[in-house]
Write a structure and sequence with these properties.
CATH topology of the largest domain: Nucleotidyltransferase, domain 5
Shape: elongated
Number of helices: 11
Distance between the termini: 84 Å
Radius of gyration: 34 Å
Helix content: 10-25%
Structural class: alpha/beta
Strand content: 15-25%
Strand order of the largest sheet: 8-1-12-11-10-9
Length: about 400
Amino acid sequence: MQMDRNPTDKFKDKWFADSGASMHMCNKKGIFNDLDEIHCQNVSVGNGESTDVLGQGTIIAHATVRNKTKVVAFKETLYVPNLMCNIISISRLRKAGCRILFDDDENGNGICYVIARETNTVMLVATECEQNGLYEVLMCPFRPTKVESNNSESLVAKTSPQVMWHERLGHVCENVIRKSIPLVKGIKLEKVQSFPFCEPCKLGKSARSPRPPVSDEARSSTRPLELMHCDLVGPIRHPSHKNSRYFLPMYDDCTGASLVRFLKAKWEAGNAVKEMILEFERAHNCKVKKLLVSRIRTDNAKEFLSKEIKQWLTRRGIVHELSAPYSPESNGKAERLNRTLMDTARSIMATAKHIPRYQKLWAEFVNTANYLRNRLYASAANDKNKTPFEAIFGRKPDLSHVQKLGSKS
């Protein structure tokens, strides 16, 4: 903000919000509620010069907020008689626990709201001046009585002990603080209540809201091989015995059946997609003739967008559907299959630590997980009375040969 040392009548009584000021400043001695008249320091103004500070005190004011009047208090305000206008420091308000919001009003003019974080209420409003672009604060200082001073809302750093400990302890919830008090020393809180609104908590702990459910027509398939889901997993930290670092599952939306291929590099994904589509079609055509894949859904990874795979899918009349960028949830069935296979493989791996170099067996564990999954109840399949294996081959699977890892027979 550009200011002159010589005060003028035009701006002398006005108050402006200033993002460059480090303190609240006032040029009139008579409106201070209390003032410590000590020459304590100098302040630099917009033209680079410095001017004297002749005191520090508290100012009480009536602030106009949405056609209503609020009583607010500005403590530690500097008395600077040579200022051409009065200053409300934006940075001081932020340190006092206020949130600053710049917006447009109904006429398209700039407006600034000062919002108390604890109560989420608007404390001050500043409107943009058309002539100079400054934001004038709508308030009128006065010398209140003692009762009014005690009842005013102070815009200075005033934090409750509970909120203070919430911030000190890394914004943990009230339940953690409540249960930690008898276990540690130094937390002096008699009672822990629900916290007020905390903006850093919302910013740091918020999660993406769930996607709205799609219609039944877009979500479901009516026949086997109508819609296939596919997603690449990896790289895995430990290469398998055949040096694979990735695995690629493919999932039939109708039957819930899945196939897995293990890859050494991402560029092998295109050939693996072709192989699995052909294998699915061969398995179904043993029972139904000319049953072909109609659609395949993947993410936007480059391994699925190569010229070769695009041309191959086009020649076979397969529609390639792409999920929304940076939205794994839009390819949710493939992501769910990946997690199911990985969770099962990790559980099997946890029982294999007695096997030398068992980490290299992860491909065998994933393959086992997929083998078992195809022969068990699948909640996502269209026909809940059949396993994926039976939906393809027309007979119930036999699991009498399945044994625990490491058993002798």
